[in-house]
Amino acid sequence: MEIKTDNQIFRNYLIFWIGQLFSILGSSVVFFALQWWITDITEDPMAISITFFTYVVCMAITAPIAGIISDHYDRKKIILIADSLQAFSTLIMILAFLFNLMQFWNLQIFVVIRSVSQTFHFTTENAIIPSMVPRDKLSRINGINFLATSFINVIGPIIGGFLLLFLTIQEALWIDIITFLIAVIPLLLIDIPNVKKLEDREKKISYSHAFKEGLNIIRAIPGLLSMMIVFMIINFLNQPRGTLTAYYVKVIHGGTVLDFSLVSIAFNIGMLIGGIITALKKHWSNKIRMILIAYIIASTGYALLSMVPIGMFQLIWVCVAMVGFSMPTINSLYYTIIHLSIPKDKVGRAVSIDTTLSFIAMPLGTIASGPLALMIGTNYLFLISAILSIIVLMLFYIFSNIRKLNEVKETEVNEKDIID
Question: pTM of the full predicted structure?
Answer without folding.
Answer: 0.71
